[in-house]
Design a protein that fits this description.
This protein is of the alpha/beta class. It folds into 2 domains: 1-102, Vaccinia Virus protein VP39 (Rossmann fold, 3-Layer(aba) Sandwich); 110-191, no CATH class. Helix content is 35%, strand content 19%. The relative contact order is 0.14. Residues 1-5 and 89-93 have low confidence and may be disordered. InterPro entries: COMT_C, SAM-dependent_MTases_sf. Pfam families: Methyltransf_2. Residues 7-93 form the O-methyltransferase C-terminal domain. GO terms for molecular function: O-methyltransferase activity.
Length: 191
């Protein structure tokens, strides 16, 4: 996957520039961070942010070597398989991690999104989906499928929006863990 992260259109600069709210958060947990280009790029751009990069042992070993001294006190590494329960309190990820999500937590998903039929060439429409099927026995989703996935993970996830930065192949899907829905549910259960 590290090779894919270096492909034109997949550079970490796209996520650095995609959101205006980076300065409003303190901790960023990158689940499946690979060689950690994203956390390193964000750490270089936002000096108040602290990062925990989680991945399998081989990726953590390789990534920890690439962090420069000037940001090493803000970028830490943790061995973690994201198919198991999340060990970091307040980490912003989906279903298995819901018990640890803090109210208002932002979820950012960097993914390919299947374009609407006819909006791009047939090759572009199908190429990533075929690669996902062949390599991972998986599929790419369109925007509506991502919204459904968030709601199926939990009704308390609110879809905020989606953006594709200029020259990026990835879209950034933003969702939020909604405290008001949790409060409403608690009030209903109490009555």
């Amino acid at each position: 996957m590290a090779m894919v992260n270096r492909e034109v259109g997949l550079e970490s600069s796209h996520i650095v520039d995609a959101f205006i709210w980076w300065d409003s958060i303190r901790t960023f947990v990158d689940v499946g961070g690979s060689l950690e280009e994203v956390s390193i790029a964000l750490a270089n751009s936002f000096p108040r942010l602290h990062f925990t990069s989680q991945d399998l042992p081989v990726a953590v070993d390789q990534a920890s070597i690439s962090v420069s001294q000037d940001i090493s006190n803000r970028v830490t590494f943790m061995i973690h398989d994201f198919f198991t329960e999340q060990p970091v309190m307040g980490a912003d990820i989906l279903q298995r991690l819901i018990p640890e999500l803090k109210p208002g937590a932002r979820i950012v998903i960097a993914e390919y999104i299947v374009p609407p039929p006819g909006s791009v060439s047939k090759y572009k429409e199908r190429s990533m989906g075929l690669a996902m099927a062949e390599l991972l026995n998986a599929k790419e989703r369109d925007l509506d499928e991502w919204k459904i996935l968030l709601k199926n993970a939990d009704e308390n996830f609110d879809f905020i929006g989606m953006e594709q930065p200029k020259d990026s192949k990835l879209y950034f899907i933003e969702a939020r863990w909604n405290l008001s829905k949790l409060k409403s549910l608690s009030l209903l259960e109490a009555s």
